[in-house]
Amino acid sequence: xxxxxxxxxxxxxxxxxxxxxxxxxxxxxxxxxxxxxxxxxxxxxxxxxxxxxxxxxxxxxxxxxxxxxxxxxxxxxxxxxxxxxxxxxxxxxxxxxxxxxxxxxxxxxxxxxxxxxxxx
Amino acid sequence: xxxxxxxxxxxxxxxxxxxxxxxxxxxxxxxxxxxxxxxxxxxxxxxxxxxxxxxxxxxxxxxxxxxxxxxxxxxxxxxxxxxxxxxxxxxxxxxxxxxxxxxxxx
Lengths: 120, 106
Known about the structure:
The structure holds two protein chains of two kinds. Chain A is mostly beta strands. Chain A contains no helices and eleven strands. In chain A, a hairpin with a 3-residue loop joins strand 9 and strand 10. The model of chain B has no long low-confidence stretch (mean pLDDT 97). The A-B interface holds A 35, 37, 44-47, 50, 59, 61-62, 95, 102-108, 110-113 and B 1, 31-32, 34, 36, 38, 42-46, 49-50, 53, 55, 87, 89, 91-92, 94-100.
């Protein structure tokens, strides 16, 4: 059974940093691209970042480019998101998602989410 | 950037109703479209991919159609478990979600 478990969400001050983790089990982690999607309180879904299975290719939404860094450690079956220069508008539940390639990449499994709150 | 626009934003319906949600892309995305269902406090769940392909395990009352810039999600005979928010997502150029359609009880 595929499972994704996020951790690392917390309350952080504006301008601060945080690192999120997502541990994947039940599938060959290195074979799949992975992504982060966030959802601000009461709002819709926003794609944040994605990374290829090998980690060699990374992609970012304009809203986080230059501030967030996605990475993965395939030996630990873990996905990361380093978040720097955090802003109030980064407050959201952050989901990691497994990207399946079937005529393009859809997100077929999601974690339960971890809450990041940026506030003074 | 490709923008996705869903309509309506909220839909009131009764159990047994046929429900249709529309999603429009700001440029052609061929059939690179997925639909997700999300219930309060839960992660999204993939329903449809490639515009009309039903994800394994998803009830057949869900169906998708369309190509290019206009797409629809149809739920035939709405069930109590279907009251939720639905999102379309393009994956032609990176990924973009629509703003969501909340299906609520009439």
